[in-house]
Amino acid sequence: MRLRKIISLFFLLAVCIAAAGQETEQCRDFRFRVATEPVFFVSNPAAVALFRGHISMAEVAFRKDNGAYRALDESPDSYKAGAVTESYIGISDRVSFHGKLSWSYFAGQQMGGPVFMDPLFNPVSFLESTESSAGLKNRETYSLLGAVSYRFSDRWAAGFSLDYVSADQNKVKDPRFSNILMDMDIKAGVSFRPSDKLMLGLSLLYRSSIEQLRGGIYGTSDKQYFIYADKGGFFGTLVELTGDYNYISMSTLRPMKNDFFGLGLQVAGGSFSNELEVLYRQGYWGSRSSSTATFFEFSGIDASYRGRFVKKAGDGLHKVSLDLDYEFLRNYENLFNYVTPSGQDTRVEYFGQNPVLDRYRASAGLSYVWFKGLEGYLPRFSAGASLNAGAIARKTLLYPFYRNSDTETMDARLFADKSFFGGRSVFTLGLNGVFRTGFGTPRDDGSYDPAAASGYLSFDNYLDSQFEYDTANAAGAGAALTYTYLLSPRFVPYIRLSDDFSALLQAPQHLGGRFRNVALITLGCSF
Hints:
This protein starts with a helix and ends with a strand. It has helices at 2-20, 30-36, 460-471, and strands spanning 54-66, 77-90, 95-111, 125-128, 135-151, 156-171, 176-195, 198-216, 226-230, 235-240, 254-269, 272-286, 294-313, 316-339, 347-372, 381-398, 401-422, 425-447, 457-458, 474-485, 492-504, 515-526. Strand 20 and strand 21 form a beta hairpin. It is 7% helix and 63% strand. It contains three helices and 22 strands.
């Protein structure tokens, strides 16, 4: 692992040094250009054909998080180190390229609860049955993105992209869990330009994600450990962590498989872009074989819209963004028995399915940014505001018992950055503020048979903590200082220091504390 870290850091350094000697046209800051030029707004890889020139960036960063105001899958004491490099290159008049490579390492203390890397992504989750077993988790992530486009004529272009992420995570206190994630996103698209001011695009999308999980106990062998099987809304069953026949295997990696198939439509002009994507999702938890069970199977629909509008006004630029997302996911639990016929191996016999969860999730985000003074490498001033809202509703049915729950979260953010130029040096001071609130129904339980005795559990310690994190009134503020040195028109190093502090506006009822602080240092270059 150390060798891979060293290779990643030296790769980024080599890229920066090589870029220092290049002589091409002058460009603005990489992040500013990507944020404000419509050619970068849509995800159709064919749109990269509209880009000419060469812009790149490379960064190494270190982040430190502290505080008990946190979500269930976060740590009260963690750090993250990473490196990333990204480029857009017009190789010729017809061929353009987009590439990105990144690595990160995360280590978090006092982590327990969810055992999947992203507990909200899947329809079923597993949690440690007691918070006293929380310990150290570490995660290493690599990602690679490559996209190429070819322009057949002034009107037609085609492109292809591959985005691949791999990660492994380990918890090093009993009960232990090992996770391996592989996530591949493939897009193929075409674009048509009926005029210089309009682009129409169509893209086909395929994504395959598989997170494999295995449990382990390396301490006292006669001690029992249990997990909660959360089948929706922190409602489910308690299962002992033992052997290979329960939800989590102790000897083999068990897969959570997700596949997405869909298409995207794009309409973009000189100052605007619109993109709509619709995906069909299907997946399962377990193994597809005659001797191992497939515990859950699920399917659903994901849809998203991305709208961007930019307008120049004198030496200023206005940008408006609108993001909408919707998800519907239905999960079924398979009914089966393990049988061992005389003289034969054990096999799985299925005899039906029960619907256990309908999940609805929606979000909307609206933001506005104003850039002022664009004659230099960086804007002299920029300011903006955003409003984001998200909602999730779950209908969990463990017949004859049910639980309905919903959570709505909103946040409003403000920021302002001011750059001061002095010769080759640029100092940028940034300030930001945020207010967060929410509401909802954490649990609405009932039974279709009032006389039935329930064998199901409500995981109230986790439910109440996450619900308070999502809905309690909170506010925060942050500051950042960036020093940029204009070494040459094609090589611009910078260093950024930032700190963000947030706090609950009332004493916590279920969370471990009121405060959260995030400090970040970034060293990078644009070239």
